[in-house]
Amino acid sequence: MNYFLYINTLFLIIFSHNLFSQEKILISGIVNDEFNFEIPYAAVGIIKKNIGTTSSSEGTFSFLITTDELDDILEFSSIGFETFKINVRDFINSKIKTIVLKEKVTSLNEVIVNSPIFYVKSALKKMKNNTISSNHQLNMIYRRWSVEDNICRFYIEHYLNIIDRGPSSYIQKFNIFQSRKSSEYRFIKNKQKVHALKYMEWNNPLRKGIAINSYKWKKIENTSYDGEDVIVIEGDNGKSEILKLYIGFETLKIYRLEMKKVPQIGRNLIATYIYKKNIDGKLYLSYHLREWEGNSKTPENIKRALESAGKKSKNFVQLAYRHEAFVTELIENKKNFTSFSNTEQKDMDEYKIPYNESFWKNISLPAETNFYKKNIKELESLYNVPIQTQFKYSN
Questions:
Q1: How many CB atoms lie under 10 A from the CB of residue 193?
Q2: 347-378 burial by CB neighbour count: b if 16+ within 10 A, else e?
Q3: At what angle do helices 370-381 and 387-394 cross, to 10 degrees?
Q4: CB neighbours of residue 125 within 10 Å
Q5: Residue 256: how many CA atoms within 13 Å on its side-chain side?
Q6: Residue 366 belongs to what H/E stretch?
Q7: Tens digit of pLDDT per residue, the chain (395 long)?
Q8: Cβ atoms 69, 55 nearer than 8 A
Q9: C-alpha distances in angstroms, 350 versus 8, 160, 195, 346?
């Protein structure tokens, strides 16, 4: 038997045993502010067990627990708000599943005396100490949409196990244990040379390094996170890239990074990386969103097909990749790591992994974001085929 398939099968046996050996309980709801507006990207979970998720851009959240977690504490934290805690059992028994976070007012304007570049340099210098910098496993849902002329024409989703060493280092290795994809509606099957996970890693300025002195830094606002005042600092290199860092005033932890690249050649990129705390207060990746836009020369056969159909052909086709990644679980005890094989680097679509419908029905999936819904709606609208039907017959 192929070694990778053997490991994959073994994982499914273990996963299925763990999945059904205990009763699974769905924790779901919405995080709002005091004015009833949704709070996006809030950290939601049981910190001492590293169980939880990140709320969607609409404030919704969902994840699975077992009966072992009923007496634990569920925590909700978000930039700009006070952390809220509630007993898991009390949350489940409550009829109202809306968590309201109170805004945290800061007074940093009265105390900040250092320049913005000082905080950026200090935060990068302390990043290794402020993050989990030893080997840890991240279980992740990774989603990629392939777009042509602003319409999503293909979707693929992987359940991954990753060995990481934090943003001050690089991802050590990864395994793909489950996969599902939509019907194939692309005209141009633009292939990535490696798994999209690697581009998530390579594009992260915290991993590849920031040429600090190449940017003009300015403080644009003050906020807070989990009881700490936070400085939001923006850097512009005057060419094509803008960075925004959310830095803890006392700890110098980087809780969030936003990036926008608009080079002259038309290959635009926007990305967000969000980090949350483990039980020791060390940060690890929680959520990632990325959109890349470019173009590709139209193949001659596509031109001929368009012309024969009475449609005007174009020399170039607008292409885009849209990505979304949720970390569903953090494992720090090496004894509990999954067995890893050497996964070959290639495009996400080229990994031939059988579709397991039962797995996807029982795995703890994050709440669907508007970003997710928009892309799936575009895909379904092409031929009015529901995504679940596409999963069933396209895998």
A1: 9
A2: bbbeeebeebeebbeebbbbbebebbeebbeb
A3: 70
A4: 11
A5: 23
A6: none
A7: 444 444 444 444 444 445 444 678 999 999 999 999 999 999 999 999 988 999 988 999 999 999 999 999 999 999 999 999 999 999 999 999 999 999 988 777 666 668 999 999 999 999 999 999 999 999 999 999 999 988 999 999 999 999 999 998 989 899 999 999 999 999 888 889 999 999 999 999 999 999 999 999 999 999 999 999 999 999 999 888 999 999 999 999 999 999 999 876 667 899 999 999 999 999 999 999 999 998 777 767 666 666 665 666 677 778 899 999 999 999 999 999 998 877 889 999 999 899 999 999 888 888 888 999 999 999 999 999 999 999 999 87
A8: no
A9: 16, 15, 9, 7
Structure tokens at 66: 């077992």
Strand partners, 276: 284
227 close to 173: Cβ distance less than 8 angstroms = no
Residue 369 CA to residue 324 CA, distance in Å, equals: 10
| Positive or negative torsion for Cα 198, 204, 208, 214 | positive
Give me the residue label for tokens 């906020």.
223
Do residues 166 and 284 lie in contact, with contact meaning Cβ atoms separated by under 8 Å?
yes
State the Cα–Cα distance between residues 239 and 297, nearest whole angstrom: 26
